[in-house]
Amino acid sequence: MKKNKTMRLVSITLLFAMIALVLVSGTYAKYTSSFSGTDTAIVAKWDVSDGNAFDSFDLFTTVKDSDGTSVEDDVKTDRIAPGTSGAFTVELTNNSEVTADYVITVAQTNLDIPIEYSIDGVNWYKADELDTINNALKGTLAFTGSSKVSDTTPTSKNVTISWKWEYQVQDPGSNPATYDIQDAADKALATGNVSTDVKISAVFTQVD
């Protein structure tokens, strides 16, 4: 009789253990899903060029006559004087994969030398008026294949900067005193020791 009670107790204990196991197992059962993805970002290329123009900057080494085309043979080579002129061309190219703004700046150190500058061959500005030219020497270059490419936003652009030292011809009807003042000013520069530096620089900036 005692043996039966013991067996019954063991059976009940096992039954409760099994029920507990099932309940515990059910508590930890759940659905699990996971997802992942990978993308690759490539940094856009930055590659702008001035056509190596500034490496061979020669604004005054090829001096022309006052007409801007004839070879100047009345002034010593590499010298400027009234009646001389010249030009310098910068080829700006955007080989990048981003749009780029450019700014070209022209500056003259000795403002006493009356050199005038132009970017269209029509309107001329003195050295102390170069801000007018510099404000016009700004623009945007699109990258190849960009939806922004147009006549106004090309991928490359040639910019020509012309200069001249005006040759003063006295008008018979002009005031001789005015002409003499200008003539005296030009002569004061003609000592052989007067010079000026002209700096032309270009800065490219990525468009946001």
Notes on the structure:
The chain is an alpha+beta fold and 208 residues long. 23% of the residues lie in helices and 24% in strands. It has helices at residues 2-28, 130-136, 176-189, and strands at residues 48-49, 85-94, 100-108, 115-118, 125-126, 138-141, 156-165, 198-206. The strands form two sheets. It has a five-stranded antiparallel β-sheet with strand order 1-2-7-4-5, covered by helices on one side. A three-stranded antiparallel β-sheet has the order 6-3-8. The mean pLDDT is 85.
CA(first)-CA(last) distance: 94 Å
Percent helix: 10-25%
Give the strand order, joined by hyphens, for the main sheet: 1-2-7-4-5
Q: In DSSP terms, counting alpha (H) and pi (I) runs of 4 or more, how many helices?
A: 3
As a whole number of angstroms, the C-alpha radius of gyration is 40 Å
- Measured by DSSP, the beta-strand proportion falls in 15-25%
Return the string of H and E elements.
Answer: HEEEEEHEEHE
Please state the overall shape, judged from the principal axes of the Cα atoms.
rod-shaped
Tally of DSSP β-strands: 8
Averaged pLDDT, please? 85
Biggest sheet descriptor: 5 strands, antiparallel
Structural class: alpha+beta
Spans of at least 5 consecutive residues whose pLDDT stays below 50 are none
